[in-house]
Design brief:
This protein is of the alpha/beta class. It has helices at about 10-20, 30-35, 40-50, 65-75, 90-100, 115-125, 135, 140-155, 170-180, 190-195, 200-215, and strands at about 1-5, 25, 55-60, 85-90, 105-110, 130, 160-165, 185. The protein contains 11 helices and 8 strands. Strands 1-2-3-4-5-6-7-8 form an 8-stranded parallel β-barrel, surrounded by 7 helices. Helix 4 (about 65-75) crosses helix 5 and helix 6 (about 115-125) runs parallel beside helix 8. The structure holds SN-glycerol-3-phosphate.
């Protein structure tokens, strides 16, 4: 199971890469604009920082077939391996996903709002499918639809992996991991909530306090 960070913030990437076993980083155009930096600069930082065994996912910005294909070739050529173009599942996008896979490019189908559009992208050969779990909750049960998708792929023997995205709570992430999802991409604020449980901090403070009272020091020896 792959745990991926959904950010272009290099300091957050470094912070969680030290703490966790990060499988890679996903970005999208909005995430890159939020950095306040030029896109070339952000992309270079990501390419320079990530190890080659960590996956890098960058989204196409063009919305027409030719534009998406040109950007897909550029993105996938940024590193020798483990580099994926994210393509939204519009009509032009579906066409591009099919063509990009025929060219042997690594593809993540994104901006997915239903299990059905994800499944069609899977049949077009997408390596990863990114349902926008929290946004899907505006139209129904985002977690439930994503679980349906996992089951649809398994039932039909389709190999695309589901990398759920757009989480707004730890519970959403939890439910999908428990359901057997192959990958999640989580924004740093939600990862922080998973990592920093206040109960753990309280327990450790109590151990230290009791030890210090008994032995007059805060170390084992
Ligand atoms: O990876 C897609 C994700 O970044 C979208 O998240 O928070 O804009 O719904 P959000």
């Amino acid at each position: 199971m792959e745990f991926v960070l959904d950010t272009a913030d290099i300091s957050a990437i470094k912070e969680y890469d030290e703490l966790l076993n990060l499988a890679g980083v996903t970005t999208n155009p909005t995430i890159i604009t939020k950095s306040g930096k030029k896109p070339e600069e952000v992309i270079k930082e990501l390419v320079d920082y990530l190890r080659l065994d960590q996956k890098l996912f960058i989204q196409s910005v063009s919305t027409d077939f030719d534009g998406i294909m040109e950007e897909a070739r550029y993105i996938c050529g940024l590193r020798p391996e483990n580099t994926y173009v994210k393509i939204p599942v519009t009509r032009e996008g579906l066409k591009a996903i099919k063509a990009a896979k025929a060219e042997g490019l690594n593809v993540l189908a994104t901006a997915i709002y239903s299990a059905d559009e994800a499944f069609l992208a899977a049949l077009n050969g997408a390596d990863y499918l990114a349902p926008y779990v929290n946004r899907m909750c505006n139209y129904g049960d985002g977690v439930g639809q994503t679980i349906d998708l996992i089951n649809m792929l398994a039932a039909q023997g389709v190999e695309s992996k589901v990398i759920a995205a757009s989480f707004k709570s730890v519970e959403q992430v939890h439910e999908l991991i428990a359901a057997g999802i192959q990958a999640v991409t989580v924004q740093p604020d939600v990862v922080k909530q998973m990592v920093d449980h206040p109960g753990t901090e309280i327990a450790v403070d109590e151990f230290t306090e009791n030890w210090n009272k008994a032995y007059g020091r805060k170390t084992l020896r």
